[in-house]
Amino acid sequence: MKQLWQQRLRQHHKEMLKYSRYVFNEFFMIAVFIFIGALAYSYSNLLDTLQGPLWWAKPLILVVLLVLLSFGRWATLLQDADTLFLLPKERALLAYLLAARRYSLWLPAAVFALCLGALLPFQAVATTLTPANSLGLFAVLLALKDGQLWLQLLASYTAIPQQVNIRRGLFYGTATVILAVSLWVSPWAGIVLVAVGEVGLRWLIPRILATAVFQWQFAVKNENSRMLQLYRLINLFTDVPQLSGKVHRRVYLDPLLRWTKGGQAKTFSYLYLREFLRGSEYIGLYLRLLVLGAVILWFIPVWWVAALTGAIFLYLVGFQLLPFYQIFNENLLVHLYPVAPIQKLRSFQHLVQGLLLLQAVVFAAVIVFNHTLSQWGLFVIVELAAVFLLTQVYFPQRLRQTK
């Protein structure tokens, strides 16, 4: 079973490496670096205004630590077919699950280390905590996450919804108490408490698993849910075959379709807008990137950096919409329409232009509160210029090359 786990892990890493080329593209990484720089700049300015110790600092850190604790789930890499083909190997499955549990701890550990490192300047200014205390908090968080993964493994053997919810509530209640003791008393006291809990779990879980039966459907459903979240994140940047598009009626958006009625020249305008509004793939991608870009722009204090970031997000959204141009190619009836091919290109061009203009308006509305009127005006000019260049020059050229 350990060999099966290693094989599944290699396949998973190969798949993620394939998608990483699209997720971590140069434009997105530029936007990320700009965002991190702007966030660090704002963070530094905020720290200059604080004079500690502050009464609300430790409660805020406690909330942050609890949010961090919720990051990361047990990754089993189980597949639907396993419920049939691995069923005879159920007794040997525990070795596979334990390897998956150990692997699932690495990513949360890295996130904990990065976030606690980012909190160090705030701790030094607003609290009496020392860097050594941060190491203790890291150890407590890591041990709590380890216990949470044990409970998730246990839930796959005792898949009773009421018990799972009760255990989850008890875990977060216990974690809150232990983290509070670590912050207000001493991290070493928190380490002692969490060590007692770990010993108790290590004693209790083998006794439960000795007579429990693995709940295949529950475990596979949880893994599919975890992978679905990951695929949705990847789908922000590229098409994911594992995500099947769905059609939704969305009656409340029907008035928008009236703008594309009224003539033969608007045939493809109507088709593209109707497919965009009623599908789930492209409208979801557009809205997610729109919200992500707006959130990032909110934290950027320098107008020209915000304008550059906004232009990058306009490019990202427009570039992700380019495959939408080919969506009707396999529909034979569409090729019989008495509509010139240039009308199809212009219709798609108008759709993308309208969506990018709406995105630029949202971005302009976000930064209007953080900049002067002249800076806001310059930002709007840059975004409008980016929309014009992308929709009138760059994207039409790319579409002609893909014919």
TrEMBL record:
The lineage of its organism: Bacteria, Bacillati, Bacillota, Bacilli, Lactobacillales. Keywords: Membrane, Transmembrane, Transmembrane helix. It holds the Pfam family EcsB. The chain crosses the membrane at residues 21-43, 55-75, 103-123, 135-157, 169-197, 203-220, 285-306, 312-329, 350-370, 376-395. It comes from the Bacteria. This is ABC transporter permease. The keyword Transmembrane helix applies.
